[in-house]
UniProtKB/TrEMBL annotation:
<protein>
    <submittedName>
        <fullName>DUF742 domain-containing protein</fullName>
    </submittedName>
</protein>
<dbReference type="InterPro" id="IPR036390">
    <property type="entry name" value="WH_DNA-bd_sf"/>
</dbReference>
<dbReference type="InterPro" id="IPR007995">
    <property type="entry name" value="DUF742"/>
</dbReference>
<dbReference type="Pfam" id="PF05331">
    <property type="entry name" value="DUF742"/>
</dbReference>
Amino acid sequence: MSDGSDEELELTSPLVPLFVITNGRGLPSDHEYEHTALVTAHDSGSSAAARALSPEARKVMNLVADGFLSVAEVSGHTHLPLGIVRILLAQLEEDGLILVRKPIPRVERAERELLSAVLDGLRTKFGA
């Protein structure tokens, strides 16, 4: 019943359950990607693992090939739920195809009095 056009079946359509995209995988506990973690492609794009990627994983790889994107940005560009993107990223990281830079933890606010004391000590020591 094809009209001769080469229409490609989109695997992320509503007819395909999301667990098919992830091959039924769950998110491993050691791959809890925060939505602000930065992701980029690793230089090994010609490996066997890269050639056997699903269409969704290939789309993620194309997105992060030129630089860093946050996990939330990858989710937004692919129109996939954040959990599905995290599972795809875990698979890509295990295959050595991406690098993930964890977000820098927020520092606790230093007390103003302590900072003033340090500044006064530096001024005393160096005469500024």
